[in-house]
Design goal:
- By secondary structure, the chain is α/β, with parallel strands linked by helices.
- The chain folds into 2 domains: 174 residues, NAD(P)-binding Rossmann-like Domain (Rossmann fold, 3-Layer(aba) Sandwich), CATH 3.40.50; 143 residues, N-(1-d-carboxylethyl)-l-norvaline Dehydrogenase, domain 2 (Orthogonal Bundle), CATH 1.10.1040.
- The chain has an 8-stranded mixed beta sheet with strand order 3-2-1-4-5-6-7-8, sandwiched between helices.
- Strand 5, helix 4 and strand 6 form a beta-alpha-beta unit.
- Helix 7 runs antiparallel to helix 8.
- The longest helix has 23 residues.
- The chain is globular, with a radius of gyration of 19 Å.
- The N and C termini lie far apart (46 Å).
- Bound molecules: 1,4-dihydronicotinamide adenine dinucleotide and 1,3-dihydroxyacetonephosphate (13P).
- 1,4-dihydronicotinamide adenine dinucleotide (NAI) binds next to helix 1 and helix 3.
- Pathway: Membrane lipid metabolism; glycerophospholipid metabolism.
- It catalyses: sn-glycerol 3-phosphate + NADP(+) = dihydroxyacetone phosphate + NADPH + H(+); sn-glycerol 3-phosphate + NAD(+) = dihydroxyacetone phosphate + NADH + H(+).
- Belongs to the NAD-dependent glycerol-3-phosphate dehydrogenase family.
- Keywords: Cytoplasm, Lipid biosynthesis, Lipid metabolism, NAD, NADP, Nucleotide-binding, Oxidoreductase, Phospholipid biosynthesis, Phospholipid metabolism.
């Protein structure tokens, strides 16, 4: 296999996964002047992007640049110098396995899913290490609703890559006047924060849907931030990462807008719907629903207490109701206000 030589930026970019975020990121690449190819599983998505320059299934009503080309074939990504992997977290393993025969040794893969794998409790970089051991990992995370990014509204995100030179190349590849990636070397912190904020957004949605008020909302965000910090640091991350865009930034965004799929699942649950009703008819993914049990399981292994995430997992599993959960959270032993 051919070894890649890194330049100042990458020109040929492959994006796997044409959901809302993969499509928006392909648009970012095109806007940055890169040669981008977007791989979709659904033939009607490929057709719609290549003919109407729209992804009407996952990113309705947004015009895409004609330079965003779609394909159903992973083999069309063979010449790409950089791959953005954007499937839902629970499908990252199968997606990377399917990609394996087509990519060059050592090709950098930017992991863009926010979640923890159920059954293994693996972060996405661990899934990558197991499926494509020769690939170089980076993580893209941060406050970035796909529709806003695709429209060209300003957004700033974290690009975490332990290889400083490679990280610099990736941010220069993706940066545009409206998309500003900041480089970090703390991949674990970015991944941990991205996975937990989705679970915490469900909690904020439940609170909002049940009419628990602004005080409860602020308390959930703040104590949720403490949970991210404990969890990330226990995994070996730095606390300053959690204070950045991929942590505090994304937590604030996702917990504050019904644009968030995770928050809207919470809103429905808080409003009295069952999980089945809340998810009915949705084509889009709410990662917190899938990741909550894995997050809680991994935290137990790490010896980290995550009362809010545990409460969300129990509500999602139908084990407890909202009222009893709120009472249980409020009657925990009183303590010093420390995050760690
Ligand atoms: N939508 C957003 O604003 C953002 C999403 N993300 C993250 O990006 C990841 C992907 O989310 P979205 O693009 O929003 O997805 P989406 O909810 O828009 O679409 C679902 C995606 O899942 C794919 N899919 C369904 N079954 C699959 C399977 N068996 N194997 C592989 N793929 C399958 C579909 O093809 C589609 O690409 C998630 O981890 C999400 O947290 C991150 C930042 C922003
Ligand atoms: O991760 C996101 C924004 O940064 C998108 O959040 P939702 O998946 O909850 O819509």
């Amino acid at each position: 296999m051919k070894k890649l030589k890194h330049a100042d930026h990458f020109d040929k970019i492959g994006v796997i996964g044409a959901g809302a975020w993969g499509t928006a990121l392909a648009q970012v690449c095109a806007r940055a002047g890169r040669d981008v190819i977007l791989q979709a599983r659904e033939l009607d998505v490929v057709e719609s992007i290549n003919t109407a320059h729209r992804n009407e299934i996952y990113l309705k009503g947004i015009d895409l640049l004609p330079q965003v080309r779609a394909t159903a074939n992973l083999s069309d990504l063979a010449e790409c110098e950089l791959i953005l992997a954007v499937p839902p977290a629970q499908h990252m393993r199968s997606t990377l396995k399917a990609l394996a025969p087509f990519i060059s040794d050592g090709v950098p893969i930017v992991l863009c899913a926010k979640g923890v794998e159920r059954g293994t409790d693996a972060l996405m970089n661990e899934v990558l290490a197991e499926t494509l051991p020769n690939a170089t990992a980076a993580v893209l995370s941060g406050p970035s609703f796909a529709a806003e990014v695709a429209r060209g509204l300003p957004a700033a995100v974290t690009l975490a890559c332990p290889d400083v030179d490679l990280g610099a190349q990736i941010i220069h590849t993706l940066a545009t006047p409206t998309f500003r990636p900041y480089h970090s070397d703390d991949m674990i912190g970015a991944e941990a924060a991205g996975a937990l904020k989705n679970v915490l957004a469900i909690a904020c949605g439940i609170s909002e849907g049940r009419g628990l008020g602004r005080n409860a909302h602020a308390a959930l965000i703040t104590r949720g931030f403490a949970e991210i910090l404990r969890f990330a640091v226990a995994l070996g991350a730095r606390s300053e990462t959690v204070a950045g865009l991929c942590g505090l930034g994304d937590l604030v965004l996702t917990c504050s807008s019904p644009q968030s799929r995770n928050m809207s699942v919470g809103l429905a649950l808080g409003g009295g719907q069952t999980l089945e009703q809340a998810l009915a008819g949705k084509v889009s993914v709410a990662e917190g629903v899938e990741s909550a049990p894995a997050v809680v399981h991994l935290a137990k292994k790490l010896g980290v207490e995550l009362p809010i995430c545990e409460a969300v997992a129990a509500i999602l599993a139908g084990e407890v109701n909202v009222e009893d959960t709120v009472s249980a959270l409020m009657s925990r032993p009183l303590k010093f206000e420390t995050a760690l």
